[in-house]
Amino acid sequence: MANIISQAEYQEKLYDCNNNTQYPDPLDSSDIIYSCPKQFGIGYERWIELRDISLLIINQKYHDDLGIVFEAGQDEFEEIEFGFNLSGSYSSNRLDRAFNRSDKENFIQWDFYRGSYNTFVDTSFRDKHFLKVDIHLKDSKILNSFVHFTNQELPPDLIKLIEGKSQQSYVEDNQLTSAMYLPLQQIINCPFQGMTKQIYLEAKCLELIALKLEQLTKIENASIKSVTLKPKDIEKIHYARDILISQQENPPSLLNLAHKVGINDNKLKIGFREVFGTTVFSYLHNHRMEIARQLLQDGKMRVAGVANAVGYANPGHFAAAFKRKFGVSPSECKAGKKIFE
To answer: What is the 3-state secondary structure (H, E, C) of 39-92?
Structure first.
């Protein structure tokens, strides 16, 4: 069972003594290393502030499973993160995510917090070397300056976000490409200091963002192209949909789902979109939210019961996902407040 600690407690221990804090670059006071508290594990978190980017490098290993609880709050902000996991795995309830993230994976997560947001937990696992690079954009202007060149290639939902025409959360996970490994290692082992380091790291961050967007472009182009689906393939894709629904509390990964139904993961990904008009993850998310809406409007179950019925152990996580989807809280929906589509 994971050790559970609040974010405030973890940060207090992280910053507890001056020995935990290091400034590796005497020419850059924004480059800070925080050693992992010894009672939890070994390693460090390194934050480097660039012009329009907050760069985070995590290189650590925990003695035991560790869950950090991020408390509910009242705030409004936008979060744009490009993450690259070289080693280790973790799970996060920040978004209604169908699959836990694992090593050799990258992701883009674009989220909005409006007014209030609920408690969530990030969990890292014992004896796993956790090595990752996170690129946090301070706003979307970096992407917006390029979008008019690529707006026919990226996923439409992402284009709307980049152009400022949407405030719907977006998340996409995929495997690291071979081209991503070199800039990741160059960031982790950056040999420069001061201004040279700042320019170098910003360039490497933009290179990784470009490689991630290139990956999304290829996926989008592949999904646009029709695949040859035989009747048996369509049956398998429907079977995959049925498995997702029946196992919505603990859904399999895309690769495991493909193995279960006897189809390769690429054909499942493209074919699922062709058959159902959306991705595997989006289908599961939308299904859970629609079931929840029906149960709430029916009025026979409490919010906590509805959350549990659609696979949420924590009602707070469910409430956050429901409000992101429909614009009202589960309680407001249960009380009869109209929701937008």
So the answer is: CCEEEEEEEEECCCEEEEEEEEEECCCEEEEECCEECCEEEEEEEEEEECCEEE
